[in-house]
Amino acid sequence: MKLLTAALFSLGLTACASSGVEQYQAEQPVLDIKTYLSGTLDAWGIFQGRSGEVKKRFHVVIDAKWEGDTGVLDEHFKWSDGTTSRRVWTLKRQPDGTYRGTAGDVVGEAVGELAGNALRWRYVLALPVDGKTYHVDFDDWMFLMDDKVMLNRSYMSKWGFNLGEVTLTFVKR
Questions:
Q1: What is the CA radius of gyration of the chain?
Q2: Number of domains in the chain
Q3: CA angle 33, 106, 71 (to 5 degrees)
Q4: For residues 113 and 111, what is the distance between their CA atoms, to the nearest angstrom?
Q5: 140 has which bridge partners?
Q6: Which residues constitute the domain of residue 158?
Q7: Would you say residue 3 lies in a domain?
């Protein structure tokens, strides 16, 4: 019994440890945000609740452009329930190679770290649900697959509790 308890405790600690983006440093192809997030992209995604059930599906068209180290991503969402929404990101490359981003429904700044084919993007989103707005933590992991396709998995939480996940596939036109 003590061995089982120790093993479960060890697994719990391992699950809580967050690996950084640097573990993907050697992965190819290398993600260059300014190159990939430029022009028009389509993305299809799902939002899954805590137990894994798909709550919503969506399609987003992203018009992206850069001037120097500043990029603007104009995202137009169409949700499976027929509603639409828009988010406009402004991204800025920092001297240390990270990225900072702002958008109308993002609380404060988003922080992005790159390594190899991966981008980790963390931010707090003001998420409207049933007439109320909740500040929800997002931990996005994006992986460039080739020059046209990028996969994204986002973990949503509040006070450390899992709320669900968003999975997206980006396709560059």
A1: 17
A2: 1
A3: 30
A4: 7
A5: 121, 154
A6: 29-172
A7: no
Whether the pLDDT of residue 3 is over 60: the answer is: no
Q: What is the pLDDT of residues 116-129, one digit of tens each?
A: 999 999 999 999 98
Task: With respect to residue 135, please indicate whether it lies within any of the assigned structural domains.
Answer: yes
| Residue 16 counted as domain residue | no
Find the CATH number of the domain harbouring 111: 2.40.128.20
pTM of the model: 0.87
* Any domain includes 70: yes
Residue 29: cis peptide before it, omega within 30 degrees of 0: yes
Angstrom distance (rounded) from CA 19 to CA 141: 11
Tokens of 96: 């240390």
Listed in order, strand segments (DSSP E) in the chain are: 39-49, 54-67, 70-79, 84-93, 99-102, 106-115, 118-129, 132-144, 149-158, 161-172
Residue 5: pLDDT over 70: no
